[in-house]
Amino acid sequence: MSPGLPFSKETFNSSHELDPASRLLPASSLTSQHLLIRPTEDIQSFLKKDLCVDRLNHIHQYLWLAGRPMPPKPLNFQIATSRDIVADHRIDMHLVWEHPQRLHLKPLPRYILDAEFWAANLMTCEGPCCTQARRNHISPDPVTTCTKDIYKCALGFLYSYISLVRFECDLAIAHEHHLVPKDVTWEKWLRFVHQLLDKGATNPSNVNLRYLYGELRLSQLNKIYAFRYASPLRGYQFTYQTYGELFRDYLGPLTAGTIYIALVLTAMQVGLATSHLGENASFQNASWGFTIFAILGPLIGVLLAGIVGVFQFCTNLVVTKRLTQRQFALYEDQKVQNQVP
């Protein structure tokens, strides 16, 4: 069988019409099985993945260690404090900042600015619980059905942007960093924000608990996750792109500690050369113990860093191997299903 044309001649013609939902959603999305599909195939699953912040909700009681319970500061303040704004579509990285002063912000999607999309997908539910309710002639309520989490996350996400874009210069910054669609003018934004405020969008009871906090520090989130799951090697977000970065991060403090140890040993050597401290038994014992520590301490630190690196490498290797086997088995199943007799 000869391969077919992957797209039609009318694809790039202006007369080629798209359905309303497709105009608002991304071109494609990933399923839980890492397969690319059209978002319109399962809008509820897409919205849950795009808006829900379950990972932060699981550690909500510890978020005060990573940030303050107050709205985020406006974009002009973020720029003034030398923070680099990074457009990041991962919702769990929205309003998370990392060293050196890099703030992740999820761009405002078009669908969340469309009232008809809200009415069709965020105010109603097509899940099993609501389907059963309809069969029993019970009117689904977005406050009590399974859309509650998505609805609150969507309002919370808007709540964060109300605070981020307070002034006209904030909107210009948002346009520059592709955070807000270009066709949203200051007048449109004013009307939009005023309606949200009038309808109680900033009421804490209407938003997801995560958005009661503003900016969150990634290093603290990593520590919270390590504590919460009793695993020092498990963090909220792995920040290293290479193993060299991992070793530099671990060996940096060790280098500073080694310099301090060298200064202390030099001071002890001078002290032992004096008659007052050289004949002091306690100072001699302390010098002996610290000398042993100076020899073994850095060596143990290097070994621990090496063990961490090897463990991370082996873990990534096993996870990658399992993922590869699972994905290629899935691809083979798809080939069989799509095979034309």
Automatic annotation (TrEMBL):
The keyword Membrane applies. Keywords: Membrane, Transmembrane, Transmembrane helix. It comes from the Eukaryota. Signal peptide: none annotated. InterPro entries: DUF6601 (IPR046536). It holds the Pfam family DUF6601. The chain crosses the membrane at residues 250-272, 292-319. This is Subtilisin-like serine protease.
